[in-house]
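Fill-in record for RNA polymerase II subunit A C-terminal domain phosphatase SSU72.
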Amino acid sequence: MPSAPLRVAVVCSSNQNRSMEAHNILGKRGFSVRSFGTGTHVKLPGPAPDKPNVYDFKTTYDQMYNDLLRKDKELYTQNGILHMLDRNKRIKPRPERFQNCKDVFDLILTCEERVYDQVVEDLNSREQETCQPVHVINVDIQDNHEEATLGAFLICELCQCIQHTEDMENEIDELLQEFEEKSGRTFLHTVCFY
């Protein structure tokens, strides 16, 4: 087992639901974890599908919570958004954008293929400095509360298995194949370099 804990990043579009649920669970399991979004703005469901609440990444979870509480407490309580924001603000102050982070990770997990493509594109556009590998793995997770929870446990189990490998570089492909068979999901996987 690697002596140092894996440095893990979990990335979705708005750093609200899927990445934060996984951040929460991985953090409780002792992982060194950060979470991010790749979108240009943070979007939360609004009163209608074509009327989302759009925020800047600089907006804190607390500010979003208070804004939605003021707009329609009943709607945002009933659809679980206030509960989600309450959880988020206990984990970190605000959403973060992956493209603005220059930290180094061992493993980056994305929650949908479009986000995976954005992460890989961003990593490949950076100037390589250390040539340290980072594994980028996509676990498709639907953007709803139930799927976010199930996906977070799957991500956590995957991280725990990778953490316990003797040689991550040589064992990860086989491990992912086993996970695909067990979960009935397919994972995209690539290696980028810092």
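KEY FINDING: The chain has two domains: 7-39+97-193, 42-91.
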